[in-house]
C-alpha cells in the first residue's frame, strides 16, 4: 500500500488585499443596504418609543449642561481678573460650575439607565426571532448549513444591535448636536470667522472619515467571512473528533483550519494598517482646526476685542469638541461594522421556509388516526427521484411495516409524514377524531408533529442529563412518568446503577452512552410523549439479539391502540405487522403479511432466507467460541 499523501501546505502568507478578497463565500447574507437594516429593526424598537424619547431628552439635557460649563468658566475667569468687592460672585460661579459638570454626568448616567432595557430587550427579541426562524426552516436548509458559521452570525448580530443603537442614537447624534450648539454660541458671541473654521474642520473631518471608513469596510467584511468560515471548520472538526482520530488526520484538520485563520489574519492586519491612516488623518484635521481657532482667539485678546475669559471659552469648547470628533471615526467604523453583522443576522431571516402552514390550516386531533399515502412522489433533487407512485394505508391502531435495501426510500416516508418536506406529487391524508379525512397540509405542522413520536435509527441526544433527554419527549411530565417510560424501555436499572443516576451527563451527541443505550433513551422519550402515531425507524438496530427480543416485545405492547409505522431492516422485528411493504428503488414491489410474502417467494422471501442464514452462522460462531473457551 502507498503512504497517504501529505496534506498540502497553506499558501504563503501575504498582506495583499487580493488574497483577502479571494476568501470563499458560502452564502449571500449581506445583500442589504443600511436603510433596509434600519427598516428591519424599527418594528422591534416601536414598543419602546417612550423610553427612547426620554433617553433622547436626557441626552439633550446633558449636552445643554455640557454647553454651560465653558460659559460659567468664562464668567469665573473674567470675574477673578478684577478686584473682588464681594465673595458672593466667585462662590456662586464656582457652585454653578460644579453643578454644571455634575449635571453632565447625571444626565448621561440616567440615559444609560433608561435605555439599557431597550438595547438588551431588542437584542434578545431579534436573536430569539432568528432562533425560532432557524427551527422553522425545512430540513433542506439544515442539511446544507454549517452550524459553527450560523452560530457565529447569530452571536455577532445580537451584539451588533446594542452597538448600533448605542453608537447611533446616543453618540453620533449627540455629537452632531453638540457641534451645532457650540457653533451657534460662537456665532452669537463672536464673529463668523470662528464658525467658518469650525464648519470647515467638521466638513473635512467627516468627509475624510467617511471615505476612509468605506474603504476599510471591505477588510472588515473579509475578516467576518474568514472568522465565520474558521468557526465552521473548527466546530465541524471537533464534532467529528472520533473520525479525525480514526484516520489520524489531526494535521490535515489543522491545515484546513489555518487556511481560514490566514485569511482572518490578513484581513485584521489590513484593518489595523488602514486604522492607523484613519487616526493620523483625523488627528491632523482636528489639530489644524484647533490651532486656527486658538490663533484667532489669541489675536482677539491681543487686539483687545476679546477677554482672557473668551480665550478660555473658545479653548474649552475646542477641547470639548475634539474628544467626540476624535471618536467620530471610531463611531462611524463601529456603526458600519454593526450594519455588516446585522445584514448577516437579518439575512438568516430571509432564508425561505419551504414548508409552511396554510392560512386555513387547522389543528389535528386524533386518537387512532387513519393514515394514507396516495400516489406519493418525492425527490430531494429533481434529477434523482426517491419515491415513485407510493400508495398504502395504515388502519386506525394498526401496524404497517416497510422493509427494503438501503436507499430504497424507507426513511423518507417518515420525513414526509413528519412534514419535514412536502410531497412533489400525490398526497398524504390523515383521518382525525371527527372521522374527517384531510390532506396532511391542511393541518398545522405543530399539531401533526405533536401527534407523532419517532425512535430514529441514528439517535442524537442533547449534551445534558439522561433525565433531561427523556423528559424532552414531554417537558411537562412528572419524574414518576419519566421513570415509568425508562422502565418500559428497559433502561431504568442501568440509569440508577450510574453514580449520578438520572442526572448523569450523556456528553456531546450522547457519545458517553453506547449505541444501544442511546436507542433505549430514544424509546423512553417516545413513550413519554404518548403519541397517536408511532414511527420506529430501525428502532432496535443498535441492540444485541437478547436486548432486541425484550425491547421488541415492549414495542409491540406500546404499539397496541396506536397507528404505527415500522421501518426495519431485520425482518424478525416485523413478522407480526398487519401489513408489510417491500420497497426497491422508491417503489413498492411487494405487499402482504409475513405468511403471504413468504408464499409469494419474491424479494421478501429471499431477504428472509438470507437473514436466517446469517443468524444461524452467527449462532454457530458463538457456540464455537464458547466451546473453545471451555477447552482452554
Summarize the structure.
By secondary structure, this protein is of the alpha/beta class.
Question: Which properties best describe this structure?
Answer:
632 residues; Rossmann fold; 10 strands; single chain; disordered N terminus; 19 helices; 4-stranded antiparallel beta sheet; 3 domains; alpha/beta; ABC transporter transmembrane region fold; 6-stranded mixed beta sheet
- Output the CATH class name of the largest domain: Mainly Alpha
What is the fold-level CATH name, i.e. the topology of the largest domain? Answer: ABC transporter transmembrane region fold
Please describe the biggest sheet, giving its number of strands, its sense, and whether it closes into a barrel.
6 strands, mixed
* Share of residues in helices: 55-70%
**Termini Cα gap:** 37 Å
Number of strands: 10
| Total domain modules | 3
What structural class do you assign from the helix and strand content? alpha/beta
Q: How would you describe this structure to a colleague?
A:
This protein is α/β, with parallel strands linked by helices. It folds into three domains: 319 residues, ABC transporter transmembrane region fold; 162 residues, Rossmann fold, CATH 3.40.50.300; 70 residues, Rossmann fold (3-Layer(aba) Sandwich). It is built from 19 helices and ten strands. It has a six-stranded mixed sheet with strand order 6-7-8-3-9-10. It has a four-stranded antiparallel sheet with strand order 2-1-4-5, covered by helices on one side. A hairpin with a 2-residue loop joins strand 9 and strand 10. Helix 9 packs antiparallel against helix 10. The N terminus is likely disordered.
Amino acid at each position: 500500500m502507498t503512504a497517504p499523501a501529505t496534506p498540502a501546505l497553506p499558501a504563503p502568507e501575504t498582506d495583499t488585499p487580493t488574497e483577502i478578497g479571494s476568501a470563499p463565500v458560502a452564502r449571500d447574507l449581506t445583500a442589504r443596504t443600511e436603510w433596509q437594516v434600519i427598516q428591519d429593526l424599527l418594528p422591534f424598537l416601536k414598543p419602546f418609543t417612550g423610553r427612547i424619547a426620554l433617553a433622547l431628552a436626557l441626552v439633550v439635557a446633558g449636552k445643554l449642561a455640557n454647553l454651560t460649563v465653558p460659559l460659567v468658566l468664562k464668567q469665573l475667569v473674567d470675574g477673578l481678573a478684577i478686584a473682588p468687592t464681594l465673595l458672593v460672585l466667585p462662590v456662586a460661579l464656582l457652585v454653578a460650575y460644579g453643578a454644571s459638570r455634575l449635571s453632565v454626568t447625571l444626565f448621561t448616567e440616567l440615559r444609560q439607565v433608561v435605555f439599557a432595557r431597550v438595547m438588551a430587550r431588542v437584542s434578545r427579541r431579534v436573536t430569539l426571532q432568528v432562533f425560532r426562524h432557524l427551527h422553522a426552516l425545512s430540513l433542506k436548509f439544515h442539511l446544507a448549513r454549517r452550524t459553527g458559521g450560523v452560530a457565529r452570525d447569530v452571536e455577532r448580530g445580537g451584539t451588533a444591535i446594542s452597538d448600533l443603537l448605542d453608537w447611533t442614537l446616543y453618540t453620533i447624534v449627540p455629537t452632531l448636536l453638540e457641534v451645532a450648539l457650540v457653533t451657534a454660541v460662537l456665532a452669537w458671541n463672536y464673529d463668523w470667522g470662528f464658525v467658518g473654521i469650525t464648519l470647515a474642520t467638521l466638513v473635512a473631518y467627516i468627509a475624510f472619515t467617511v471615505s476612509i471608513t468605506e474603504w476599510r469596510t471591505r477588510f472588515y467584511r473579509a475578516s467576518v467571512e474568514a472568522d465565520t468560515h474558521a468557526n465552521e471548520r473548527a466546530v465541524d472538526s471537533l464534532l467529528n473528533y472520533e473520525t479525525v482520530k480514526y484516520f489520524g488526520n489531526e494535521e490535515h484538520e489543522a491545515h484546513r483550519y489555518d487556511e481560514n485563520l490566514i485569511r482572518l489574519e490578513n484581513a485584521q492586519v489590513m484593518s489595523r494598517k488602514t486604522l492607523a491612516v484613519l487616526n493620523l488623518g483625523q488627528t491632523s484635521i482636528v489639530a489644524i482646526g484647533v490651532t486656527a481657532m486658538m490663533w484667532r482667539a489669541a489675536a482677539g485678546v491681543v487686539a483687545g476685542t476679546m477677554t482672557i475669559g473668551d480665550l478660555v471659552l473658545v479653548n474649552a469648547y475646542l477641547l470639548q469638541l475634539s474628544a467626540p470628533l476624535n471618536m467620530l471615526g471610531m463611531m462611524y467604523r463601529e456603526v458600519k461594522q454593526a450594519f455588516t453583522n446585522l445584514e448577516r443576522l437579518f439575512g438568516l431571516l430571509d432564508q425561505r421556509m419551504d414548508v409552511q402552514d396554510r392560512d386555513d390550516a387547522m389543528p389535528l386531533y386524533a386518537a387512532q388516526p387513519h393514515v394514507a399515502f396516495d400516489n406519493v412522489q418525492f425527490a430531494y433533487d429533481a434529477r434523482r427521484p426517491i419515491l415513485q407512485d407510493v400508495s398504502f394505508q395504515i388502519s386506525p391502531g394498526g401496524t404497517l411495516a416497510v422493509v427494503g435495501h438501503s436507499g430504497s426510500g424507507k426513511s423518507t416516508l417518515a420525513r414526509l409524514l413528519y412534514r419535514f418536506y412536502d410531497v412533489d406529487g400525490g398526497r398524504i391524508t390523515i383521518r382525525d377524531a371527527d372521522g374527517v379525512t384531510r390532506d396532511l397540509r391542511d393541518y398545522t405542522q405543530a399539531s401533526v408533529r405533536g401527534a407523532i413520536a419517532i425512535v430514529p435509527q441514528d439517535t442524537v441526544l442533547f449534551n445534558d442529563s439522561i433525565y433531561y433527554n427523556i423528559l424532552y419527549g414531554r417537558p411537562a411530565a412528572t419524574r414518576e412518568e419519566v421513570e415509568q417510560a425508562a422502565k418500559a424501555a428497559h433502561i431504568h436499572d442501568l440509569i440508577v446503577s450510574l453514580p449520578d443516576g438520572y442526572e448523569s451527563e450523556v456528553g456531546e451527541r450522547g457519545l458517553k452512552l453506547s449505541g444501544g443505550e442511546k436507542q433505549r433513551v430514544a424509546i423512553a422519550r417516545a413513550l413519554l410523549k404518548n403519541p397517536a402515531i408511532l414511527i420506529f425507524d430501525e428502532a432496535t438496530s443498535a441492540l444485541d439479539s437478547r436486548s432486541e427480543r425484550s425491547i421488541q416485545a415492549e414495542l409491540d405492547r406500546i404499539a397496541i391502540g396506536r397507528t404505527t409505522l415500522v421501518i426495519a431492516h431485520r425482518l424478525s422485528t416485523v413478522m407480526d405487522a398487519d401489513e408489510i411493504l417491500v420497497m426497491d428503488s422508491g417503489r413498492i414491489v411487494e405487499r402482504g403479511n409475513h405468511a403471504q410474502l413468504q408464499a409469494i417467494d419474491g424479494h421478501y422471501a429471499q431477504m428472509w432466507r438470507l437473514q436466517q442464514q446469517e443468524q444461524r452462522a452467527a449462532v454457530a460462531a458463538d457456540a464455537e467460541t464458547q466451546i473453545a473457551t471451555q477447552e482452554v
